[in-house]
Amino acid sequence: MTDLPDFALPDYALNDAVPLPAPSQAFLLGLATRRSAPAQALVAPGPSDDQLDQILQLGARTPDHGKLFPWRFIVLGPKSRAEIAEKLAVLAETQGRPSKEQAVLAKLTAAPLTILVVSTPIPNAKPVWEQQLSAGAVCMNLEHAASGFGYSAAWITDWYSYDAEAAALFGVSESETVAGFIHIGTLTEPPLERPRPDLTAKVTRLP
User: Fold this and answer.
1) Going by C-beta distance under 8 Å and a sequence separation of 6 or more, which residues neighbour residue 33?
2) 115: which strand partners?
3) CATH classification of 38-180 is 3.40.109.10, yes or no?
4) How far apart (Å, rounded) are the C-alpha atoms in residues 120 and 32?
5) What is the pLDDT of residue 9?
6) What is the pTM of this model?
7) What is the pLDDT of residues 23-45, one digit of tens each?
8) What is the CB neighbour count within 10 angstroms for residue 151?
9) Where are the domains of the chain?
């Protein structure tokens, strides 16, 4: 993990001029080498309380049509996740879910820290799809922020994100949806590269 003890977020006030981005090979390299971590392989150390606060602030600097902030965070430590995982195991068995869906609960409890991003669309405001996209952008920002502090992260959903009874165990209401569980910790070995798309099949260029 890279130690950044002196890093502090700039404190911009409303309508302050925010500096334009400068070319940064380090930033581009971070994007080029970004890789989701296997959630089960994330171990301590995780972010400190101060680092967590900054990761959350960085995550919240996301595109948001209408300045609605249509999302919220639930920070889950080891104790709360272990307790919820036990209840999810009982629920999975009660619902007759296959063993594979019961096994994925290990991903929920492995990392030192998890940030649950909850999508909270505001009715009769901007299109709900755009509000949900903003929550997804938050998830990606959190991953980038964690990487900036030298940690690895995994963006996970799994079945308990889409089951109303399961989601309620995390404090997610019926009017909300889970955008993602962002598990953050340290990898003991570098992750392997995964397949990437052939952009010739994905890009259309118009004059």
Assistant:
1) none
2) 75, 182
3) yes
4) 31
5) 86
6) 0.94
7) 999 999 999 999 999 999 999 99
8) 25
9) 38-180
